[in-house]
Amino acid sequence: MTTRSAVVRLTGEAKQWRERNQVENEYGAEPGRSVEHAAPPEVTLANLEDPLLETMDPESGRPKHVIECRGLSLSFGQSRILSEVSVKFQRGTITALIGPTGSGKSTFLRTLNRMNDKVRDFHHEGAVHLNGDDIWSSAQNLLSLRRRVGMLFQRPNPFPMSIKDNVVAGVKAHRIAKGKQLDVVAEQRLIEVGLWEAVRDRLDDSPFRLSGGQQQLLCLARALATGPEVLLLDEPTSALDPVSTEFVEALLRGLAPALSMVVVTHNLGQARRISHNTMFLYGGRLVEHGPTASLFEHPFDPQTERYVSGRMG
Predict the structure, then answer these.
(1) DSSP code for 248
(2) Run of H or E residues at 271
(3) 235-267: pLDDT as tens digits
(4) Which of 1, 75, 103, 243 could anchor a disulfide with 281, C-beta 3.0 to 4.6 Å?
(5) Are 296 and 308 in contact (CB under 8 A)?
(6) Which of 85, 84, 80 has the alpha carbon at shortest distance from 97?
(7) What's the whole-model pTM score?
(8) How far apart are the C-alpha atoms of 55 and 138, rounded to whole Å?
């Protein structure tokens, strides 16, 4: 592809991208971030291998790895949960965390946005960097960190407020939008998670009148509304029926590469279906980490092979 034809193609796609992102632009968000997409669809300037075009790519100056852990050890009091975990999460990918119950998956996940900070006797050693910045730095604003690294929990946890107010709760807290803009954000996010048609005529109703699957989609809409760079998901479909699970999995796959995700799951089939990379935690350590297909089909460590083949436990 020549530079000229690449520019022509990108110009048309960039126009569509700007139209979709108009709402986000009104909020004064970071360049390249949007309510729906973090980059134009199907093509990235960096992939065209043209130095001039690469300078136009809003992602070109950002680290390849959105999160990096270096020698991370986690403890509660005298009990060591994980030891010396060093791992990098590539931007725009989904990473699955697998391992037996008690292997430290949820503790590790909640550490990435400092959800464990208030847990009694929690202690960490090592470092976690988000886009190159230490998340435990004294200069790190915790509220800002949790906007950039959102979380979806195992069971739906809607707030005791209306459906609409649930979606925009974080938007209000971070002062991202106000007034009529909140209506637009709520609609956009509910459309994105496939819930709009079911609730459009009852946005002022209690979320507790929704089904369990709908409540989890509402919580996902709430997590996405603040425009996170990373989304942490702790067994997000464990309480859902197979149909709802299939829908959520498809939704998560569609969110990448605009969003980076780390997903804890006990469902090995789910890990294979949705993730690009997989981490296997066992015995307080990171046993193996790599591309999902390779880890499941050609594991390097015998413990990994026993676990993914169903011969462990």
Answers:
(1) H
(2) helix 268-274
(3) 999 888 898 889 889 999 999 889 999 999 999
(4) 103
(5) yes
(6) 85
(7) 0.78
(8) 32
